[in-house]
Amino acid sequence: MLGDVQNELVSAIGKAHDILRRDLAKLRAGRANASLLDGIRVDYYGTLTPLSQMAHINVAEARMLTVKPWDRSALKAVEKAIREADLGLNPQPDSDILRIPLPPLTEERRREFVKIAKKYGEECKVTIRKARHDALDMLSQIDSDGDASKDEVDRAKKKAEETVADSTKQVDGMVAHKEKDILEV
User: Is 116 helix (H, G, I), strand (E, B) or coil?
Assistant: First the structure.
């Protein structure tokens, strides 16, 4: 029972870390990365479809992405979706593909991306703290129900706190790494 609480906590923390990794991957660091377009959804025959499910996304050069829709008739819809995604990208149609040059980041824009990365990190920490709170509540409930001894519950609470502290350090490390990546010219 105490192990189940710890497992749930570790699972919740893992999910929070996965979300943080995905969010940080979307931030531009000056180099082309296909994951920049992950959040884009295209109005494809009345259905919002993820871009990755309807086109091949390729990194052509260090600062150039290419998008080739599998259905040529969707080229205009894909171009419109990329323009409206507010990523600061300007796709250029070239026969049946879109070329997306990535403009160099200004110092001001880099600072904005660092702030966004820190915000994502803080959101992840809030999620982790909520998971810790839920775990501690479950452990207190186990203690009050008498399902485990006070010592066992105290050890489980201490282990939960250690797990949360380690995961918070991991979040700080991920954000610091992304910050370094963004600020690198």
Answer: helix
